[in-house]
Design goal:
438 residues; alpha+beta; Conserved hypothetical protein from pyrococcus furiosus pfu- 392566-001, domain 2; nine-stranded mixed β-sheet; six-stranded antiparallel β-sheet; 14 helices; 21 strands; globular
């Protein structure tokens, strides 16, 4: 099924860029304005200049973030700041990070993967996308003709057979081993041995891939490929634009961490907020826990993890308790949940919140202008604090989604609501670039 191939990646020259910790950056979609500025100051070669160049009020169609990124890329190639790998390689990327005060390692395979249209079911999404982010990445593809950051995708590794193959490559000397100022460490090994590359690629011959993070990047790459093919009569199946850079991670990798995007709501009429608990009682059994109770979060976790029912928690402004909400059996029907979705979708915590609470009770339009009233936090203490401070009116606390549930939704040819998952940490930009020109 999935066609996973080696490629001649572009990487920073170690002779010109001696400290890679100053040039690696996160992907474009999680960089705050302040951190954006800091990355520019770290190094004249920081990858942010390609991944998400600065914008200015005076930008024009011929002088903008995309044209400036293209000029930067061309200069770095001319000056040999970026140099190609001598031989095609599949890269093994070990990302070391801290989560819940414990050291973790997520192992990914960086390779180029053949683009497949969604309907083939070879590459499977689990979330929908928004137009602006897709258009931004498409504009960058046309300007640079490279993949700057990878799409994160998951794969099955029954009996950890591929894991054993990857472990055998630990003996290779890393081509990158750098510790970032934020504390994450990145170790990259380039596997160029033909037999080993074939073993890795062959593992995916009968397997689909499941996009974890990077739906916009993948969709943009599909559009770019279509547009290139339409413009070029000699466009071949092996043209570089037929492929996209991916980081492939096993479903069972111990470092595959998924955080819950807790919902934060504001801009709701006071009368609606004042009657919210009464309305919630129509659909949910409510268990209240006073804020500040001993072992507060542990008690909430125990309640939310009880099997057999859909449970999540909420905090409403000007109250002194968090409510654990357990869905009543009669609550899911054609009036509350969309029938065109799978049964699995209709029983997701996040689907219940989006359709029953946000849409039906609070009257918010999901995906439209009301999106400005919804924010997300991946730290429940932070979400709690924002409501207590009065920044938001309501918080909804979710459980993290398990990888096997993501797979099941995708296998059902369905998609979860937007912002259902947050894969932590994000795969970085700047370790290796995939060229889209031959």
């Amino acid at each position: 099924m999935a066609d996973v191939q080696p490629f001649r990646g572009l990487r920073y020259s170690k002779s010109l860029v001696k400290d890679l910790s100053k040039v690696i950056c996160p992907p474009y979609d999680i960089i705050s304005p302040a951190f954006h500025e800091e990355l520019h100051k770290r190094s004249e070669y920081n990858f942010i200049r390609l991944e998400d160049a600065k914008t200015f009020p005076q930008d024009t169609p011929t002088d903008n973030k995309y044209t400036r990124a293209a000029e930067t890329l061309q200069k770095w190639l001319t000056d040999h700041v970026l140099i190609p790998e001598r031989k095609p390689a599949i890269y093994i990327h070990d990302h070391y990070f801290q989560h819940q005060e414990k050291g973790q390692r997520r192992r990914g395979i960086l390779a180029r993967v053949r683009l497949e249209e969604w309907e083939k079911g070879i590459i499977r999404p689990h979330e929908g996308i928004l137009g602006p982010a897709r258009d931004d990445r498409l504009s960058l593809l046309w300007a640079l003709q490279v993949n700057t950051s990878p799409v994160l995708a998951m794969y099955q590794d029954r009996r950890n057979q591929l894991a054993a193959v990857l472990d055998s490559q630990d003996k290779l000397k890393p081509v990158i081993d750098t510790l970032l100022p934020e504390g994450d460490r990145h170790v990259l090994r380039a596997t160029t041995d033909n037999d080993m590359v074939e073993k890795i690629s062959k593992h995916f011959d009968e397997l689909p891939l499941y996009i974890a993070d990077g739906h916009h990047r993948y969709t943009s790459a599909l559009t770019y490929r279509r547009e290139q093919a339409a413009m070029n009569p000699s466009f071949s199946l092996e043209a570089a634009a037929n492929f996209v850079l991916m980081s492939l991670v096993s479903f069972t990798d111990p470092g595959l961490v998924i955080l819950a995007p807790h919902r934060l709501i504001r801009g709701i009429e006071r009368s609606v907020i004042e009657t919210l608990e009464t309305r919630l009682d129509e659909f949910f059994e409510i268990t209240r826990l006073s804020i500040g109770t001993k072992d507060f979060w542990q008690k909430i976790d125990r309640l939310m993890k009880q099997p057999g029912s859909i449970r999540f928690a909420s905090l409403i402004t000007n109250t002194d308790h968090v409510s654990v909400l357990t869905l009543k059996e009669h609550s899911i029907d054609g009036q509350t949940m969309p029938l065109f979705h799978s049964e699995l979708y209709r029983k997701l915590d996040v689907s219940i919140i989006d359709h029953i609470i946000l849409e039906k009770i609070l009257g918010l339009g999901i995906g439209g202008s009301d999106e400005t009233k919804i924010s997300y936090s991946y730290d429940r203490e932070d979400a709690l604090s924002r409501v207590l401070k009065g920044e938001y009116q309501v918080a909804f606390f979710l459980k993290p989604v398990k990888p096997e549930l993501i797979k099941a939704v995708a296998d059902a040819n369905d998609k979860m609501p937007r912002k259902s998952t947050y894969f932590y940490p994000k795969a970085p930009a700047g370790l290796v670039i995939n060229k889209l020109t031959d």
